[in-house]
Amino acid sequence: MADPLRIVLVAPRNPLNIGAAARAMSNFGFTQMRLVNPYEVAFKEARSAVHSQYILENAEVFATVGEAVGDCSMVVGTTAGWRRDLQLPLYRLEPAGELLREHLKAEKPAALLFGSEKFGLSNEDMSYCQWLLRIPSREEHGSMNLGQAVAICLYELRRDAAAAAQRLEEMPTASAEDFERITALLLDLLDRSGYLNPSTAESSELKLRRLVRRLGLPASDAVTWLGIFRQILWKIGKTPSA
Amino acid sequence: MADPLRIVLVAPRNPLNIGAAARAMSNFGFTQMRLVNPYEVAFKEARSAVHSQYILENAEVFATVGEAVGDCSMVVGTTAGWRRDLQLPLYRLEPAGELLREHLKAEKPAALLFGSEKFGLSNEDMSYCQWLLRIPSREEHGSMNLGQAVAICLYELRRDAAAAAQRLEEMPTASAEDFERITALLLDLLDRSGYLNPSTAESSELKLRRLVRRLGLPASDAVTWLGIFRQILWKIGKTPSA
User: Fold this and answer.
1) Which of B23, B29, B168 is nearest residue A145 as measured by Cβ atoms?
2) CB contact (8 A) between residue A137 and residue B28
3) Chain B residues whose beta carbon lies within 8 Å of the beta carbon of residue A24
4) Which of A112, B46, B112, B163 holds its CA 20 to 30 A away from the CA of A174?
């Protein structure tokens, strides 16, 4: 299916930002970039960058916001302001992402608008939007770099709390058997080292077992530790007792 | 309380990236930047940037990763790779953010490490980490811009699904009374315009009421629509019937 999300940069000025937006799009698997009235030189320079070439080559240029969002059934503006009589519903990015994800899941086209580096979206730009979103940055320094703002919004759209629940790299953890073998070796080792008091040996064993169980041990590390303790035990065995 | 999170950039090369990382820190309210073995020129240039000056001025420089994370009880590395025998637990950013937030909430110091632009974290850098996190970028283009990666991680740390549930800018919606007044005016208007068929007038009224209720209407807009319809009605009243 064609990517239903259009990332619309309105009047971007800095080629590095256009390139950074394209790179973030590529990182998160979005392909449809639209530019409204970009600074010509900036767009040319951005196109010569190595990253995410295919996105910039296919980017469409429009003269007005109206044309750029014409085919979209959801049009969302981004703003760094907290309130300035926006006359539009304003959501934080977290629930805004949810609304956008829902719309895109139904393969309905949506536009996400980012204003120019210096001024953000104008009141006229915003009049094309159904609602606005705000990245939850600090009130004292709300204004974000354009490339970073795009990256954060796209991350939120790809965020998946459910898929994320499991570890990416599973580390098989040590089994009870591994723990028991380590405990036994350690007991032997501590006994021979004179660490254990024979009169409290039994409670020491329990303490030691719990001590070992509290280790967060991947299975492969258990093998390494067994080897280490065996080696030390072997060395101690060769040492004449004091 | 002092900010317990240290953002550690290992061997950064590009002053723009150091500046972008500092800006994102300022946006999301983090203050402790540490640099390991930065490219001297890059650090000097970044310091001359206007944004987030205070963060760069207080940034501490270390010769090794070991020294930079010495006071941290949680040390987390970032990686773009999916798997390369990392020998460390690897989490997606979503659950990783949860683990970090928990740790920081207890005001315990933690370090979040980002590698150099070209090579990422080395195996030696990673040997100081307890676990790794990965931003869920595409497998085919996983490598992210350093400034964007920092921004996304900090956004995840500040993410607050609960606080985000409500709209930032509440728009009081139209009341049932508003809807009823609009419906009545419209009925009158359509009647006088000859839109309504007298024989089906009753079912038309129901249809019209439902049509109006389906409008997503902020309270202030309801007033505007009432004014518009009244004006049209007035104009029609002055028109001689055909």
Assistant:
1) B23
2) yes
3) 144-145, 148
4) B112
CA-based nearest residue in chain A for residue B19: A145
How high is the pLDDT of residue A89?
86
* In the block, residue with structure tokens 């009235």: A37
Domains of chain B: 5-165 (3.40.1280.10), 176-238 (no CATH)
Measured in angstroms, the CA of A190 and the nearest CA of chain B are apart by 28
For chain A, the straight-line distance linking the first and the last C-alpha, in angstroms and rounded, comes to 78
- The pairing of strands B60-62 and A110-114 is unpaired
Residue A133 DSSP one-character state: E
Count of beta carbons in the 10 Å neighbourhood of residue B127 = 13
Instruction: Judge contact between A22 and A52, C-beta under 8 A.
Output: yes
Per-residue pLDDT band for B227 (boundaries 50, 70, 90) equals: confident
- What's the gap in Å between the CA of A21 and the closest CA on chain B? 10
Q: In the block, which residue shows the tokens 């109206």?
A: A66
* Residue of A31, A47, A30, A49 whose CA lies nearest to A39: A47
State pLDDT tens for residues B140-188. 888 899 999 999 999 999 998 777 666 566 667 788 888 889 989 988 8
Q: What is the pLDDT of residues B109-131, one digit of tens each?
A: 999 999 998 899 998 899 899 99
- Residue with structure tokens 């990245």? A135
Which residues in chain A touch residue B134, judged by CB atoms under 8 angstroms apart?
A: 168
Contacts of A28 in chain B (CB under 8 A): 137-138
Along chain A (242 residues), what's the average pLDDT of each consecutive run of 10 residues? 89 91 94 92 76 85 94 93 73 94 92 94 90 92 93 96 67 80 88 82 82 81 86 78 51
